[in-house]
From TrEMBL:
It comes from Chlamydomonas eustigma. The keyword Isomerase does not apply. The chain crosses the membrane at residues 12-42, 102-124, 200-233. Keywords: Membrane, Transmembrane, Transmembrane helix. Pfam families: DUF1295. It comes from the Eukaryota. This is Uncharacterized protein.
Length: 263
């Protein structure tokens, strides 16, 4: 039995979030919650049909992912909602000038909405198929998703610890460490991104097992979208002259996303 898609549910929040953007309550604080609402919508739909174990497992993992990302967001923002705008949007606003208030709907919200629809598509497939749990394939999907969550959680914690240590060094009158090369960051320049991508590919594997490989397009789009994000982050790292040479060497020997032995 196929669940009817609800276009109103999928299209209303980009419009409603425009006022929040102008108040600097940016999209990222909501991005951690929206996928859970979408997943719950599919799971609780009257016409939903799904293997109970797959449904419970995927939704539990989705809630864990949301809790991890929400905690990371508030920890980074020092437990304040909307205390500051995402620096990438700030840079875009400076470039666009007075046109940013209306351009932000397309650049910052509608584009993210399309991506969110793609990455949550597997939950529609999961809750529209009663195919029994497969001990091999569904376990692979679960293991991939869990590994992604764990890697992202560890990387976020290590990055936060690095920032705190540098703040303590500054307070003590010491020079800050220019490059974070500890923990997972020794093997990957962006292990947190890799964990996030791996999580969504794991979710896609659930739906792939159900005969809907097309849903992997969501994970693919998310991966492609991470390329310009990575470029922007690394360009920002190069803005400080004292860090340019060290960061170039770090890039030369260290993998971009996938944790890998150094060159």
């Amino acid at each position: 039995m196929v669940i009817d898609l609800n276009p109103t549910f999928h299209s209303i929040y980009p419009v409603l979030f425009i006022p929040f953007s102008l108040l600097q309550l940016m999209f990222h604080s909501f991005r951690t919650i929206i996928p859970v609402l979408v997943g719950w919508f599919y799971q609780s739909h009257p016409r939903a049909v799904a293997d109970p174990l797959r449904s419970i497992t995927s939704m539990t993992l989705l809630c864990l992912w949301s809790a991890r990302l929400t905690h990371s967001y508030f920890r980074r923002e020092e437990w304040q909602l909307g205390a500051r705008e995402d620096w990438r949007f700030t840079d875009m606003a400076k470039i666009c000038g007075r046109h940013w208030p209306w351009l932000s709907f397309f650049a910052a919200y509608l584009s993210q909405h399309v991506m969110l629809m793609g990455i949550t598509w597997p939950f529609f497939t999961i809750h529209s198929s009663g195919l029994p749990w497969d001990p091999l394939w569904d376990f692979l999907a679960t293991a991939t998703a869990v590994t992604g969550i764990v890697i992202a959680c560890i990387a976020d914690t290590q990055l936060q610890s690095f920032k705190v240590r540098n703040e303590l060094r500054k307070a003590a009158g010491l020079e800050p460490v220019l490059i974070n090369e500890s923990g997972l960051f020794y093997y990957s320049r962006h292990p947190n991104y890799f964990g996030e991508l791996l999580w969504w590919w794991g979710v896609g594997l659930f739906a792939f097992r159900l005969g809907q490989p097309i849903v992997l397009c969501g994970a693919l789009i998310n991966t492609l979208a991470m390329i310009p994000v990575t470029i922007m982050v690394e360009e920002r790292m190069m803005r400080k002259p004292e860090r340019v040479e060290a960061f170039r060497e770090y890039c030369r020997v260290t993998s971009v996303w996938v944790p890998w032995p150094r060159a």
